[in-house]
Amino acid sequence: MYVFYNVLVTLAFFIVVLPYFLYRLTKEKGFGNRFRQNMGLVRREEIAPVANANCIWIHGASVGEMVAVSPLVKEIKRVMPERKVLVSAVTVGGYDMARQIMPEADAIINFPLDLPFVASSMVDRIRPGIFMMVETELWPNFLRAVRKRNIPVMMVNGRISEKSAKNYRYLYGLLRDMFDTISRFCMQSSIDANYITQLGADPEKVFVTGNTKFDQTYAEVTPEDLAAYKTELGLEEDAYPIIVAGSTHATEEDAVLTSFIALRKKFPRARLIIAPRKLNRLEEIKSLIADLGFEMGLRSELKEMEGRRPSYPVLLMDTIGELGRIYAVGDIVFVGGSLVHYGGHNVLEPAAHAKPILVGPSMEDFKESYSLLSKAGACRMISDTAGLMEAFLEIAGDDALRKKMGDASIQIIQENRGAALKTIHYLTDLMEQTAARRAGVK
Questions:
Q1: Which fold has domain 28-210+418-441?
Q2: Is-contact 311 222, C-beta < 8 A?
Q3: pTM here?
Q4: Residue 344 has what DSSP assignment?
């Protein structure tokens, strides 16, 4: 099975990945650093603090996973401050996010491609004491290299969507080998625990620890921070309501802007902040905003200005890693990836700022978080543009409703904190068992 997998990944690398990376190398400033590290060409000084130091290597794919990693790194450093921590990411956004929100990490790198020689080389150079994958970062060659070197593995903040559960079944023997490598499956919910067990994980190794995103503190905003954000964004005191549309996908901006036009008729001082999921869509969104006749400001440009900023009706976030904090300025939040069939995005970030939240019908990837918030009355699901427009108008016009939804949001966050601490319990238990086993061998 590994031979077949490696033939496929090698072909995919030369036919798809390498040409795509070379293209991005010519177009994106700084992409060379990612490409070099993806190929396992990590400089000695980049991993010096963690190489052969029995470090804890925590790996997540993108921005969302880095949000989940942040509380774990903080908790590890609190419980065992002497232990070195390495964090790795797959995407440029994830890497940049890690560097912004995890000053406690001893090293941060781009994860090596899952080519057998690359994976083995990186494991040999770092020799971690333990490897922790966030959510379902299952890479066959990397996990095989880790298993051969008797390095214990944990899945943390584990999450399996219904679609992923069906797709993973096609991995057959590879999936069984990867699951045999993992000593602890710390899952976000009982739903995720059931899925991972059905896929073949040993039930005795599966634990429900909750979602570490409830424990995130990187996005906390002080009153001084909030005032500074409003100044930088040109949001005057009488600006109301401020709508934040986060992690939007194609066609969702159309729905938000159409709803915003209707909102402005009743609330002329309304403001809209759009934070697209992919920054490579900025030009497309700029054109859409211009076609609808709105003046628009860019976050990056406003941030660099001095003094009073222009009061644009629409603001476009063209920076990475700020959305979790920008939610704090909003009066109503729409979380994207949900009006299109994508599965939704993280609703816990706006909830942590006590915001009323709106989502579309596609929340499959965040159904546990959505379920908690919707049952409490903090999050409302709308089905289309008309529903979004109606919800904006209703919530903006009802102070009591807006406060009730916001209070419910923060209550859910406070009631569900503690996943990071539970996860660290299983981590220390695994580390003690590993140490005892190695001492016995000697």
A1: Rossmann fold (3.40.50)
A2: no
A3: 0.79
A4: -
